[in-house]
Design brief:
By secondary structure, the protein is mainly beta. It contains no helices and eleven strands.
């Protein structure tokens, strides 16, 4: 059974950086599209970034383009989210998730939660001075 576990969250000052990690077990993460999402209380879950299997095409939410970067580490069976120039509006619980339909070599992932099924428990990111 597929499981995803997020790590790397914490407190960071505005302008700082953090790297989140999504570790997969029970599956080979390279075979699937993996996405990162975030949520704050009272708001809908927002798509941050995703990476497809195969060629590893990426997509990003408009609010993080140019600041965040998603990548795979096949040896560790993980997907990382590098976050730079963090701002208070980036404060949220960050989740990673698996798109079970994203196994075709030409698949293009989408940063919409409705494509994803298996979710991690989340990791808190707080951006504050």
């Amino acid at each position: 059974q597929a499981q995803l576990v997020e790590s790397g969250g914490g407190l960071v000052q505005p302008g700082g950086s953090l790297t989140l990690s999504c570790t997969a077990s029970g599956i080979t993460a390279d075979y699937y599209a993996i996405g990162w999402f975030r949520q704050t209380p009272g708001k809908e879950r927002e798509g941050v970034a995703c990476i497809s299997n195969g060629a590893g095409r990426t997509n990003y939410g408009d609010s993080v383009k140019g600041r965040f970067s998603i990548s795979r580490d096949s040896a560790k069976n993980t997907v990382a989210l590098q976050m730079n120039n963090l701002q208070p509006d980036d404060t949220a619980v960050y989740y990673c998730a698996l798109d079970p339909g994203g196994t075709d070599a030409n698949y293009i992932c989408y940063v919409s939660q409705y494509f994803y099924e298996t979710w991690g428990q989340g990791t808190q990111v707080t951006v504050s001075s």
